TrEMBL record:
InterPro entries the record matches: ClpP/crotonase-like_dom_sf (IPR029045), Enoyl-CoA_hyd/isom_CS (IPR018376), Enoyl-CoA_hydra/iso (IPR001753), Enoyl-CoA_hydra_C (IPR014748)
Keywords: Lyase
Gene Ontology MF term list: enoyl-CoA hydratase activity
Lineage: Bacteria, Bacillati, Bacillota, Bacilli, Bacillales
One Pfam short name: ECH_1
Protein name (database record): Enoyl-CoA hydratase
EC number: 4.2.1.17
Principal EC category: lyase
PANTHER family: ENOYL-COA HYDRATASE, MITOCHONDRIAL, ENOYL-COA HYDRATASE-RELATED
Family note: Belongs to the enoyl-CoA hydratase/isomerase family.
């Protein structure tokens, strides 16, 4: 892999790019807990990746074999006053929105614990691949607080209010297999293979026309937050945008000519 060329210095992130796929690794031992600096660095790197035409898909994972992200840094939160917490929460929520609204597909490779803010980060991604030993939970209520990074909203869109209330009220841990059954993750793979599986999927997506991928994401994300008629209008506008691109014409012509399309991202 080649390192992503940038002028930013990241203390807690490793960023690599190969074949139009960027891999962002959160590297904060021992369990990759999210603190204010990690949130800021993730926000910056997603700005950079979104503007990089050489990157078509992003994979995000955690360093080591123990955790994807085992939540927020509780020591930092416990010592903060309300003003600081409000400020940091705004930073974290903006970061989650950047992940969710990135113009590129974002795949989470869940290589271990994804708790609290780590689960919220995974939910902001488009697709999630978990290793068999991955475990998930929203333990916040047991600490006297609640999720503050969008978890109460994003997860209920997947599992419904009944199940999410149970998970939030109890803080109970659930397994990768349960997450698969509840459609929280897209695939479960053997221990140690989450990142490689995510990269293989990313390589497959990177061969697709990037503007069409962007329009799919826009139609699903935006349309999913509105009524059906408004969603259909959004879908129609997204379809028209994709059709009007050079890649849209190339894909259709290549099909009629029975050849492989040459997508250029235009």
């Amino acid at each position: 892999m080649s390192l992503l060329v940038n002028k930013m210095n990241y203390e807690y992130l490793l960023v690599e790019v190969e074949n139009k796929v960027a891999v962002v690794t959160i590297n904060r031992a021992p369990v990759n807990a999210l603190n204010a600096q990690v949130y800021q660095e993730l926000s910056r790197v997603f700005d950079e990746l979104d503007a990089n035409d050489d990157v078509h898909v992003v994979v995000i994972t955690g360093a080591g074999e123990k955790a994807f992200v085992a939540g927020a840094d509780i020591n930092e939160m416990a010592g903060a006053d309300l003003v600081t917490v409000v400020k940091n929460n705004k930073v974290s929520r903006n970061m989650f929105k950047k992940v969710e609204n990135s113009t590129k597909p974002v795949i989470a490779a869940l290589n271990g614990l994804a708790l609290g803010g780590g689960l919220e980060l995974a939910l902001a991604c488009d697709l999630r691949i978990a290793s068999e030993n991955a475990k998930f939970a929203f333990p916040e209520v047991g600490l006297g607080i609640i999720p503050g990074g969008g978890g109460t909203q994003r997860l209920q869109k997947i599992v419904g209010q009944g199940l999410i209330k149970e998970l939030l009220f109890t803080g109970d841990m659930f397994t990768a297999e349960q997450a698969l059954n509840w459609h929280i993750v897209n695939k479960v793979v053997p221990v140690g293979e989450a990142l490689s599986a995510a990269k293989e999927l990313a390589k497959k997506l990177a061969k697709q026309p990037p503007i069409a991928l962007q329009m799919v994401k826009l139609a699903v994300n935006t349309g999913g937050n509105t009524d059906i008629e408004s969603g259909l209008i959004i879908e129609s506008a997204s379809f028209n945008t994709a059709f009007a691109t050079e890649d849209g014409k190339e894909g259709l012509v290549a099909f009629t000519e029975k050849r492989k399309p040459n997508y250029r991202g235009k």
